[in-house]
Amino acid sequence: TTVWEVTTEWPWGTAPPPVPCGGYVTGPSGVIESPYYPNPYFNNADCQWVISATQGYNVTIQVVVEHYDIEAGYDYLNVHDGRWSSSYRLARLTGSGYSRYYYSSSNEVLIHFTSDSIVVANGFRIRYQVLHGTDVSEQPTTAPDNWWWTTAWNNWWSPAYHTDYYPNFQIQLRGGSYYYGRVEVYYNGQWGTVCDDGFNWRDARVVCRELGFSDYSTYYSNAYYGQGSGPIWMDEVGCSGYESSLQYCSHLGWGNHDCGHYEDVSVVCAIGTTQRAVVI
Asked: Pick from 85, 217, 238, 234: which is nearest to 158 by CA?
């Protein structure tokens, strides 16, 4: 994969040299970066990259957004499960953040980046690789040393009744909008819900921060944004508030509960200038 490297500064008000802004990407792994990364991208960008893997049984594309720094609320980085902008959206990122993992359900992914006409930032770097079957091996993700130590310490310190962590774990909000809704988690190849028993503000904080927001606004019990379907994966969740993912919080074990879907928990994440990312 060719990685563009800027070696000179260009005068303010003049156009920098052209760089790739979108394209058709193949191969078992690779890197996608915003134009001029890690220097600022340009205004009015509309870049689309289609990642395409050879079709086959149980082919998944793992997309790791290693770093993103884009204007919050105006510039967006979208990840779609398929080659079209109408395909299911796995992520809609804005603001800044690190190490976001997404997994396709097919052999194609669309990365779509747009910017407005005013403010620009440093952009993003994405690493992808094609996985086959249950293979979840990967190359290490680039992240600042302080981020790694903070995450490792918080995850080690968090008490848990289990150590069964799922490498493809994901979280999303459904039944509402991009920043509020019913909490659903992806475990063992299936989406399910979280019971409201014992759920408190610390758990809501972890949910919203895992989605990339700065914090939570409030949370609701009793299926406030509608009842989900499928398994109830988590019950009696107990986070310290500092975990990097809800799966590192204590709970009764995957699928162990005494709940019905009328007890599905919901959260509202804080938005505004502090918004960092979102998955819907």
From this structure: 238
For tokens 């009744």, what's the residue? 161
Q: Are 209 and 248 in contact (CB under 8 A)?
A: no
Residue of 31, 28, 77 whose CA lies nearest to 56: 28
Predicted confidence (pLDDT) per residue in 130-145, tens digit:
887 544 443 333 233 2
Cα dihedral across residues 42, 43, 46, 51: positive or negative: positive
Residue 203, Cβ density class (10 Å: 0-12 exposed, 13-18 middle, ≥19 buried) = buried
pTM score, two decimals? 0.49
Q: Measured between alpha carbons, how far is 239 from 247 in angstroms, rounded to an integer?
A: 9
Instruction: Produce one character per residue of 65-103: b if its CB has 16 or more CB atoms within 10 Å, e if not.
Output: bbbbbbbbeebbbbbbbbbeeebebbbbbbbbbbebbbb
What SS3 state is found at 138? coil
